[in-house]
């Protein structure tokens, strides 16, 4: 640690999609523990001026020396960049909070959700703390609260994931496909959507998705890992086990890409060691500052992605007792994958580190 009274924060990937959300989070925090803030990006972005809480800050090019004197370095960059540069920052004395997948399953790197396992931030042999995948993270505030009270034993999840999880390319592709099918009367017969998309010159081979996403859902998220599983599904399993500290937790996930720009949704089927009621779940969620409860289905009150975009909490509704499964609740969760699912969780970890400096 640099040891100054007001710690220094670095944001690596300041000009990217998550970096832009992080700058917005900076502007809205009610408290501000930082002295200097360094904005770091690739050499092509160096020299740009960005605003940090009403002050102009010049973006620096990523290099070893930019981490000298930094107390906490947040990384919002691709896996390969984090894998190379996070150890460099740690070697220069910074505690790294990494939002990539490079270190999530490393035994010497804690995987942290502040509402669930904040105590793990002090156990960081490599000087690195990892942020979970946005899909896993979207359900952790609610699931963690239930686990601490009732003891989670089994988890079955279906996710409905926004295209922004695939980056700018995913957002652009959905926009182009929607423009291609708009007003074309598609969907009457098999192949209409695909034909309209391809007629607009949008080859599936050039898409981030293996099928058209406009007016469609695609049961594929991440890379294919064999035996029928995609990487996003295995992340839900492995990361849930690590975050909750249940190495033998039984988990099965099906991850689906849907034509939504921002906010992941999950249908959660969770079985616990002890009996749990809907009323008890309502009580826990109402008491959680990072959860918003919207649960009056008879009145049409439940969360949808369109309600949640741009908000920090996760939203929970459709809570019900599983009819044929003891000690089991089913519920629906929505979380902005670019805020709590990425930037906010990373920042909350950094803020907790600052409190201990």
Topology at a glance:
Elements: E1 9-12, H1 17-28, E2 37-41, E3 49-52, E4 55-58, E5 60-61, E6 72-75, H2 79-91, E7 95-98, H3 114-117, E8 128-130, H4 134-150, E9 152-161, H5 168-181, H6 192-199, E10 224-226, E11 229-230, H7 231-244, E12 250-257, E13 264-272, H8 278-287, E14 291-293, H9 305-308, E15 314-321, E16 328-335, H10 339-355
What is the gist of this entry?
It is built from 10 helices and 16 strands. The chain has helices spanning 17-28, 79-91, 114-117, 134-150, 168-181, 192-199, 231-244, 278-287, 305-308, 339-355, and strands at residues 9-12, 37-41, 49-52, 55-58, 60-61, 72-75, 95-98, 128-130, 152-161, 224-226, 229-230, 250-257, 264-272, 291-293, 314-321, 328-335.
| CA gyration radius, whole angstroms | 21 Å
Q: Order of strands across the biggest sheet?
A: 5-2-1-6-7-8
Content-based structural category: alpha/beta
Name the helix and strand elements from N-terminus to C-terminus, one letter apiece.
EHEEEEEHEHEHEHHEEHEEHEHEEH
Tally of contiguous helical segments: 10
Shape field: globular
Task: Return the average pLDDT rounded to an integer.
Answer: 95
Low-confidence stretches: none
């Amino acid at each position: 640690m640099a040891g100054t009274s007001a710690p220094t924060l670095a944001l690596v990937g300041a000009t990217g999609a998550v970096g832009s959300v992080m700058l917005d989070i900076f502007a809205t925090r009610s408290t501000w523990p930082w002295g200097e803030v360094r904005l770091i990006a690739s050499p092509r972005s160096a020299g740009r001026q960005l605003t940090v809480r009403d002050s102009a800050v010049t973006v620096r090019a990523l290099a070893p020396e930019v981490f000298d004197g930094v107390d906490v370095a947040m990384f919002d960059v691709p896996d390969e960049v984090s894998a190379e540069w996070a150890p460099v920052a740690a070697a220069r004395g910074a505690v790294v909070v990494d939002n990539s997948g490079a270190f999530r399953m490393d035994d010497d790197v804690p995987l942290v959700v502040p509402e669930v396992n904040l105590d793990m931030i002090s156990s960081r042999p490599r000087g690195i703390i990892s942020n979970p995948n946005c899909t896993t993270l979207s359900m952790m505030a609610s699931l963690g609260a239930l686990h601490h009270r009732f003891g989670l034993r089994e988890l079955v999840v279906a996710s409905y994931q926004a295209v922004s999880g695939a980056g700018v390319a995913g957002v652009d592709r959905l926009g182009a496909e929607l423009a291609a099918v708009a007003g074309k009367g598609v969907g009457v017969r098999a192949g209409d959507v695909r034909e309209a998309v391809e007629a607009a010159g949008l080859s599936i081979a050039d898409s981030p998705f293996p099928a058209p996403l406009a007016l469609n859902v695609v049961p594929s998220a991440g890379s294919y890992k064999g035996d029928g599983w995609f990487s996003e599904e295995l992340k839900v399993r492995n990361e849930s086990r690590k975050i909750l500290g249940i190495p033998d937790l039984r988990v099965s996930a099906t991850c689906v890409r849907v034509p939504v720009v921002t906010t992941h949704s999950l249908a959660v089927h969770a079985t616990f060691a002890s009996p749990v009621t809907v009323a008890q779940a309502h009580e826990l969620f109402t008491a959680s500052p990072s959860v918003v409860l919207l649960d009056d289905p008879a009145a049409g009150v439940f969360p949808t992605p369109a309600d949640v975009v741009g908000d920090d909490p996760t939203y929970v509704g459709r809570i019900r007792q599983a009819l044929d499964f003891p000690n089991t609740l089913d519920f629906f969760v929505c979380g902005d994958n670019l805020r709590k699912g990425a930037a906010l969780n990373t920042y909350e970890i950094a803020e907790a580190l600052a409190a201990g400096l």
